Amino acid sequence: MNYDLIVIGSGPGGYVAAVKASQLGMKTAVIERENLGGICLNWGCIPTKALLKSAQVFNYINHAAAYGVNAQPANADLPAMVQRSRGVAETMSKGVQFLLKKNNVDVIMGSARVMPDHNVEVTNADGEKCVLSAPHIVIATGARSRNLPNLPQDGRHIIGYREAMTLPSKPQSMVVVGSGAIGSEFAFFYQSIGVQVTLVEFMPTILPNEDEDTSANVARSFKKMGMKVMMSASVERVDVDGDICHVHIKDKKGSEVLVDCDVVLSAVGVVTNVDGLGLEEAGIKVERGKVEVDDFYRTNVPGYYAIGDIVHGPALAHVASAEALCCVEKIAGGNPHKVDYSNIPGCTYTTPEVASVGLTEKKAVEAGHDVLVGKFFFKASGKATAAGNNDGFVKMVIDKQSDLILGAHMCGDNVTEMIAGIVSARQNGLTAKQVAASIHPHPTMSEAIMEAIEAAYGQAIHG
Question: Would residue 442 show up in a list of annotated catalytic residues for this protein?
């Protein structure tokens, strides 16, 4: 079977590449070994947000009296929450199936293996093999949960994110190892529904890639809800005794702390899915688990491309999609803009939410910038106060000479919906004063952006 372009993997990089290729007139096939939509739609971005929404509703009901509403105390039904989450994932996967069909993309279910001379071998569930060929082959196989030697996942006592999304019953206690976006979101979810969570982070702050002020705010919020947060700490080993996990943790003082729990969630990052793909046989260079590519995602072997988690850059769904569009448009003879990795937004969907783009204050100073910093706290926001949750702030990091926005760091309700405006402003070269001069609607959370910029220049009205 001959195609113009074959995509291996149907996650937010793969299916976007396939749809765009078909729209540009290429006969296209996508190969998927599990579920259309990949990890993001089935086991990551989407179903986790469904669980977090359930936790939010649970919390609203339990605090309904604060809004003048009389309601019975809520009961967190974890199996029902999981069922809803899986239903949402299934709906989104069917949506990808519809998009591929609508755009005349052939879907071939099976495991793919790259071969020389622009061929791909596909093995289906029955073990039957076929060979497809195309002058352009895009590899978008994503990543999976990292399994550490001292945290060997058994799927029951020591689990990864997949099992965390489908636990059959609510545990009494849980240790979450790693406080990146995945670890923090699960820690927040389980603490919210009544599980005693201990969050362990090796770095001095949780959400270590975020600005230090943001990390400190989220840590305070977690502790306020009863979560135990241990920073500058490491899990040395886990001893499983029946249904109890004895977790040996070295704290920041170097002392050993023993924490007993029902479940340990390992959220210490991901590892790329490059094994068993035949990359070596095809001559494609892989360095430290990442496929080497140029600015348009071409590998060292002509006609073979790689995008998403398996290449350099942050392992984020929207990054994979951007890379897919750039890659395919270049294949089609276009002149796409290169992906600007300095302007990638990051979002974490805890409560409070976290959203950021650009440099942290610390990194901006280390890079030699003379910075202005402005903060606006949601305690002074009418919209946040009316909504009943005024925790958090917006922090703007601005270059003093150029007035350009070096970074934006947000923590609070719905800030993940606000960060795109700053991404667009930075991409189009708008200065901080130009952004602040734009009339922001009142009352909104987004007013905080304007107020934070004005605070940087000592001109804040409400801050």
Answer: yes
